[in-house]
């Protein structure tokens, strides 16, 4: 379950750190009843970044498979020839 704490709880940083470390989920800090920031452990952040990277990779692989199936690709030799023509002139 998401945990929300008011910004005034940041005054006791040791207590707030314990709250963040004890929560599996990110902790939302509110100011005047509105979300102000989100805090999470480094492990949770790394996990989130890893999930996002995996999702980007899977989307790119889907795109590459579609390009391959439609014939919109170059083999290695043709690709290198195109690069040489483009940059060596």
Can you describe this structure?
There is one protein chain. The protein is an alpha+beta fold and about 90 residues long. Helix content is about 55%, strand content about 15%. The protein has 3 helices and 3 strands; from the N terminus they run βαββαα. The chain has helices at about 15-20, 40-70, 75-89, and strands spanning about 5, 25-30, 35-40. It has a 3-stranded mixed beta sheet with strand order 1-2-3, with no helix packed on it. A hairpin with a 2-residue loop joins β2 and β3 (about 35-40). It starts with a strand and ends with a helix. The mean pLDDT is about 95.
Quick recap:
The protein is α+β, with helices and mostly antiparallel strands and 89 residues long. It contains three helices and three strands.
Strand content: 15-25%
Task: Tell me the radius of gyration.
Answer: 24 Å
Count every helix, treating DSSP H or I runs of 4 or more residues as helices.
3
Span between N and C termini? 60 Å
Largest sheet, spatial ordering of strands: 1-2-3
Secondary-structure content class: alpha+beta
* Shape call: elongated
Average predicted confidence as pLDDT? 94
Helix content: 55-70%
Number of strands: 3
- What is the N-to-C succession of helices and strands? EHEEHH
Report the sheet with the most strands, covering strand number, pairing sense and barrel closure: 3 strands, mixed
Unreliable runs, pLDDT <50, ≥5 residues? Answer: none
């Amino acid at each position: 379950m998401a945990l929300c704490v008011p910004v005034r709880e940041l005054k006791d940083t040791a207590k707030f750190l314990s709250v963040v470390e004890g929560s599996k989920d990110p902790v939302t800090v509110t100011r005047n009843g509105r979300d102000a920031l989100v805090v999470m452990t480094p492990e949770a952040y790394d996990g989130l970044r890893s999930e996002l990277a995996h999702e980007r990779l899977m989307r790119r692989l889907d795109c590459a498979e579609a390009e391959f199936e439609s014939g919109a690709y170059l083999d290695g030799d043709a690709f290198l020839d195109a690069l040489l023509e483009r940059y060596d002139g």
